[in-house]
Specification:
Distance between the termini: 46 Å
Number of helices: 13
Order of helices and strands: EHEHEHEHHEHEHEHEHEEHEEHEHEH
Structural class: alpha/beta
Helix content: 25-40%
Number of domains: 2
Number of strands: 14
CATH topology of the largest domain: Rossmann fold
Strand content: 15-25%
Radius of gyration: 21 Å
CATH superfamily of the largest domain: Thiamin diphosphate (ThDP)-binding fold, Pyr/PP domains
CATH architecture of the largest domain: 3-Layer(aba) Sandwich
CATH class of the largest domain: Alpha Beta
Strand order of the largest sheet: 3-2-4-5-7-6-12
């Protein structure tokens, strides 16, 4: 393994994208992800890549569409309101079955909100991000190392399944600094016979388009796309379990909330309360299986979130409402501390026995 270097989460994403073979980045500055664009602005020209600060978020996502159509690895990044502006483009990418990577380093909302960290874009990202029937693969890192590793993974999944991958991080993950190894396992990009690269008079024309005016054909396209999604749910779901095997109280959390929750689990165990944690790494597809299994022995679940309660709905669905699920949360850019989470565990447990 290579030596580790100290990097911000945003910088780790940018460098990992370059290592993964991304040579095209289009974006627009917005806190708390601007370091990604700044890093790309410095690095891309030196390696023969393309950096372009677009005139808007809408322009940036459509530039991504163009490069993805040509079969190249391409990325954009933004923060919550900017991702909303990209929504139409995300839907067009899905409708054209184009692979790309988008990064959302979330800030508080709704509206312009604030610049502090949040997880309030969970619904937006896991339910597609734009109009129509589609999904994105949504990856939630909980360390700077994972910011790098999941960026590479995001490109690979996007290419494998011809769809958009999203890194969904909160502002804390983007701004915090940790040692990170950039000795990343990168698989070569696959052949893309569908790409619009010019025929060289050797093949038929490739056409990239999301318009389908024949209802029966559009229905069939959607059915085929969802067949692909089923494969992703079966093969690509990722999660981490921590002390879940004998847990009476199981926490669900991702990103920075998971790190806080792990500390609370440790403190609860010292008090004799059997607590555990399931950390979804893929928010879509959501890891239903570990929650369903835990519901067979756990007494209750707590969803720890930096929002008003969004992932809690998926926890309820995954546990089939066999056990009570409660919310421990902060919102508007606030982060729950381990003591708040521990108090929630004690309360759900009925006190310290």
């Amino acid at each position: 393994m290579s030596d580790k270097i100290l990097m911000k989460g945003n910088e780790a994403i940018a460098e990992a994208a370059i290592i993964a073979g991304c040579r095209h980045y289009f974006g627009y500055p917005i806190t708390p992800q601007t370091e990604i664009a700044a890093y790309m602005a410095k690095k891309m020209p030196k390696i023969g890549g393309t950096f372009l600060q677009a005139e808007s978020e809408i322009a940036a996502i459509n530039m991504v569409y163009g490069v993805a159509s040509a079969g190249k690895r391409v990325m954009t990044s933004s923060s919550s309101p900017g991702v909303s502006l990209k929504g139409e483009g995300l839907s067009y990418l899905a409708g054209s079955d184009l692979p790309s990577l988008i990064v959302n380093v979330q800030r508080g909302g709704p509206g312009l909100g604030g610049i502090q960290p949040s997880q309030s874009d969970y619904f937006q990202s896991t339910r597609g991000g734009g109009h129509g029937d589609y999904h994105m693969i949504v990856l939630a890192p909980a360390s700077v190392q994972e910011m790098a590793e999941l960026t590479v993974k995001g490109f690979e999944l996007a290419d494998t399944y011809r769809m958009t991958s999203m890194i969904l991080a909160d502002g804390t993950m983007g701004q915090m600094m940790e040692p990170v190894s950039l000795d990343l396992d990168v698989k070569p990009a696959p052949e893309k016979p569908w790409a619009t690269t010019g025929t060289q008079m050797a093949r038929e024309h490739n056409i990239v388009n999301s318009l389908s005016l024949v209802p029966e054909e559009l229905e069939e396209l959607n059915f085929k796309r969802y067949d692909r999604y089923k494969v992703i749910e079966e093969k690509e779901t990722m999660f981490e379990e921590y002390m879940v095997e004998d847990a009476d109280i199981v926490l669900a959390a991702f990103g920075i909330a998971a790190r806080v929750s792990k500390n609370a689990v440790d403190e609860a165990r010292k008090m004799g309360i059997k607590a555990g944690l399931i950390r979804p790494i893929t928010l879509w597809p959501f890891p239903k299986a570990p929650f369903k299994a835990a519901a067979e022995h756990a007494k209750a679940f707590i969803s720890v979130e930096l929002n008003m309660g969004q992932m809690i709905e998926d926890v309820m669905l995954a546990t089939e409402s066999k056990r009570p699920v409660t919310l421990c949360n902060r919102a508007g850019g606030m982060i729950p501390d381990p003591k708040q989470v521990l108090n929630s565990i004690i309360e759900v447990n009925g006190g310290i026995q």
